[in-house]
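Notes, p. 3: input format for complexes.
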Amino acid sequence: MALEEYKRKRDFGKTSEPEGAVKDTGKSVYVIQKHQASHLHWDLRLEFDGVLKSWAVPKEPPVKEGEKRLAVETEDHPIDYASFQGQIPEGEYGAGKVEIWDKGNFKLIERTADKILIEINGKRLSGQYYLVKFPKIGPKNWLFFKKKT
Ligand code: MN
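Output follows (149 residues plus manganese (II) ion):
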């Protein structure tokens, strides 16, 4: 998907978000940003194919087994976004405060078109996690949960 949608939605003269570019870090970056926009949500981002694949999670992300969260696919973000924190100004896309809620990296275990299994190595989230497509309620909907051990 690259970054066209990300760039189209933002005015980099007004927001301090990074313009960024597609690049591979080789580190499998993982980050969750708490985003106090019109609705509070958490943005889960995982490095794949030189960008951060992104999902908006409307409730606090699952720290333990048995908690399932809706995760709505959003536009790819640049890798540089992983270190972004700050205030997106009023009137701009996603206006509100962004802070890093968790950060680290992940190991890919399995990835198909409708399922991703990863081992997350963060501070709040750690262990194996599933992202599984949940098209029943819409094409961009996934479920995000910790694998039962
Ligand atoms: Mn967001």
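DSSP finds one helix and nine strands in the chain.
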